Amino acid sequence: TKNYNDYDNLYWKFWRANAARFDELSFWARVPVVALTLALGVLIFVYARRLFGARAAALSVVLFAVEPTLLAHGRVVQTDVAAAFTLLLFCLVLDAYLRAPSLAGALITGAVCALAVCAKFSLLVLVPVAVLTPFVLTWTRRAGWRCAARFAAHACASTLVMLLTINAAYLFRTHTLSDFALDDAGLPGGFGAGAFGAFLTELLPRIVPADFIEGVLWQVGHQRAGHEAGLLGEYSTFGWWYYFPVAFALKTTLPFLLLTLASLAWGMWRVRRRRERALLLVIVPPVLYALLLAGSQINIGVRYLLPAYPFLFILSGALLERLLRSHRLRRTAALAVALVLAWATFEVARAYPDYMPYMNQLARGAPRWHYLSDSNVEWGDDVRALARYLLARGESRVHAAVLGDRSLHVYGVEDVEPRDVRPGSAPERARYVAIGASFFNGSVLYRQRADGTALGDDERRNTYALFRTRRPEAVFGGSIYLYRLDD
């Protein structure tokens, strides 16, 4: 599509033609994601067992299985679980290559790197790692010219298979880079002119798919423009460097949060004192990834941090295994491990089935939408329950301000616009208004009204202030609040 309007038109055209199959299509679209999440659990076990043994691997998988954030995003269609899987797989194959460098290992590393890049554009940072690793081995081993030539061949082979895999993922389609892609990236005027412009728009798409390049440029533009977000009652378009640590602290269970902090401290101490290389393999990737996100201006969900989670599960499992191995504190350690796992299990049971808006006990004294917004507190999964509730009461219209409100029509409920429901503001009135958790703080509201006039920041943030102190008639999934409007 060339712009958002094209996407919007295609969206409505598709779902009008397939409204009766909405649940079926949504279900089957999620099946591969669920399968990939299960595969991630298997990969965590394989990697942890390779580094720390079978018992540490089993403990890592238990921690993975009782973490609400993984359960929430492991069943919806997005790129973050795929990024978590491919990043962990890349580290596994890269470790194998470093242990025993070979041409086959270089080819596998390049292919997995390409899969990671196709899963999420932010993983482009892996490309120089895959390409330069053979040259680093040449330098560290002070290899002769024959060995250096062999490593150079590995780098070339890895690069070629990387390009081949990316092109295969885009079905080998190629076309000239469009002007709107450069506009989306917010590149300065004249950037596409001259020799470099010709290379960017004509030659480069013959090497890397133009659709891939346009996706990267769109992401660059999104990063430059920022994204409205809320954090701890504050608002920002360009985010906060501490957003993801705070979101992680609020969205993970307290036992896993405490275990993560303890395992990071323990792991860094063991690396410094004992030079344990295995611990470096699970400390460096999540730390570097978190530092990469610190510069992100798109602060719309802890899900962006998901690629770091598998390493934290493995590191925490390794710490628990070391505690169980202790001879002097065997009984105390066994009791401590049992309590941690029981506490984590209790938390995930308490959150069931509403994993998406889950927050731990640190989020006290204020509603969830005060602390975080967007995909941290809702995803649109509860729209069907909302529609069924309304239809059961003879209502087929609602003022909806929820993520996923576009799917209301497939269940026979009309979303009456505009979203502004203050007295006298709406030409059409419905008896109910449904407000998503992230809409309460206004961070995800449109900047324009339905008539095209601008909506000021204060007005946008307080559009639904009237409802913040009212008791909802019903709450669906902890994410959608339904109010009945007075006559």
Account of the 3D structure:
This protein is mainly alpha-helical. The protein contains 20 helices and seven strands. Strands 4-3-5-7-6 form a five-stranded mixed beta sheet, covered by helices on one side. Helix 2 runs parallel beside helix 5, helix 2 crosses helix 15 and helix 14 packs antiparallel against helix 15. The mean pLDDT is 86.
Give the topology, please.
Blueprint: H1 4-17, H2 22-52, H3 54-65, H4 68-73, H5 80-99, H6 103-119, H7 126-140, H8 145-169, H9 179-184, H10 194-207, H11 210-225, E1 229-231, E2 234-236, H12 243-251, H13 254-274, H14 277-294, H15 309-325, H16 330-351, H17 368-371, H18 383-392, E3 397-401, E4 414-415, E5 432-436, H19 457-461, H20 465-468, E6 474-476, E7 480-484
Parallel strand pairs: 3-4, 3-5
Antiparallel strand pairs: 1-2, 5-7, 6-7
Helix pairs in contact: 2-3, 2-5, 2-15, 3-15, 5-6, 6-7, 6-8, 7-8, 13-14, 13-15, 13-16, 14-15, 15-16
